[in-house]
């Protein structure tokens, strides 16, 4: 049975959505980290061989293909950098919303003045809803605890990559100037 099916099944059977406050198993996080997807790409088979016999043409085609792939990867990096603050804000708002809903249900529970079985049932339902929202908030908070640190690590790596790329862009220009001045001296 999938982990995501457990809350729905528990709720359908009348149980609590989150049954323990223990940290979630890291196996699903490991699977996400190891998965090949938008964040992790493998080099296509096409780059392992070319279909021309001319070495100069091969080099040019390969260079152009790699340049295009690099540009795509760099564009993805930029999009992810834009998404990280948005995702952090969305996570924060989700937790605030769940806490707010739990407080609303607690207030409904305390404000219900009906007597008898109807009042008791309404208060029990409100208490259960408050508990569900509280537990969902705690569960999400536990799941997301490592997310800001992981995002910061990825941002730091991306910044380091940008610094290295900027250094690489500056270095050839300086070498080209030196080479041109050397060739001018020889003339």
User: How many beta-strand elements?
Assistant: 0
Q: Spell out the helices and strands N to C.
A: HHHHH
By DSSP (H or I, 4+ residues per run), the number of helices equals 5
Work out the radius of gyration: 28 Å
Strand content: under 5%
Q: Portion of residues in helices? A: over 70%
Question: What can you tell me about this protein's structure?
Answer:
Residues 1-24, 165-187 are annotated as: Disordered. It is built from five helices and no strands. 3% of the residues are buried. The protein is rod-shaped. The chain is 76% helix and 0% strand. The chain has a domain at 52-167. By secondary structure, it is an all-alpha fold.
Task: Please sum up the structure shown.
Residues 1-24, 165-187 are annotated as: Disordered. With 187 residues, the protein is mainly α.
Considering the chains and any ligands shown, give keywords for the structure.
mainly alpha, 5 helices, 187 residues
Topology:
Layout: H1 5-12, H2 27-34, H3 55-111, H4 116-144, H5 147-186
Helix pairs in contact: 3-4, 3-5
